[in-house]
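Regression test attached.
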Amino acid sequence: MARNLQDKVEECQLIREICQGNTELFRTLIEPYQRSVFSIAYSVVTNAADAEEVAQEVFLKALKNLANFRGESKFSTWLIQITLNEARTLLRRTRAHLFESLDGPPGTEQNDRGYIPRDLADWREIPSEALARKELRQKIEQTLECLRPIYREVLVLRDMQHLSVAETAEVLGISRDLVKTRLSRARLQMREALAPGYDGSWTVGSKRYRGVRPW
Amino acid sequence: METVIEISCAEVWQEVSSYIDGDVTPELKVRMEKHFSKCRHCKAVLDGTRNSVRLLTDGDWFPLPEGFAERLFHRLSCDDRNDKP
């Protein structure tokens, strides 16, 4: 969602014109954000159909409430906040019986301090071919789904949407330190799932792979 | 006599994510790098974590479903007839 100054000026102008009634321009305004909104919605609801439903609601709400956008934060930040709210609302509505509190049980963050990475496989190189592999994509998506929502959201915002720590803290309404703690946990869990420690299947040539453990 | 490792593995694991982001103090950076040069286990954690971050950062994850934009703008235009901002 990186926007340069010129884009930002144009964006403010677009927003003004839309608020003055030229709603045709809304399409232009949101064009760059469709993917981000969908991805962030997906990171919460973890399926494409619900993520699309959420994304549609987000843009409808954004259009209806555009006059309330004061430009104090970035338009992208505002959109992400609406997206997280809508996605969490849908999740609560559809999976109330399964829903895990987004805040987690008390003391959970404390437990993270004692986290020990398992299965410390050596993994110095990313085989370039691996990126294209369907299995790797599935593995990443599965791992994301297995992460607790509080970790998944931070990981998606930071590493997939390229928000800064400060921006991530702002949209999630949490401290920067908490962003860093959750990000650390999420990244280590991703590494664990993706490192070729289990069967070496992500390596092209498995010469470099050695299973090592610190204990 | 072998040089003493000044930072524990557990401390390194807590900071490895911030280290990848270049978000550690110069002093901590030096201590961690000294540790990485001696501890292959933590070096493996660093390399693996950095690689997973790179995969996430570079990959095209959650691509938009086909027809997403058409359905979105159809819905927006339907709604727009009833509601103006």
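Expected vs. actual: identical. Helices of chain B lie at 9-20, 26-38, 40-58, 68-82.
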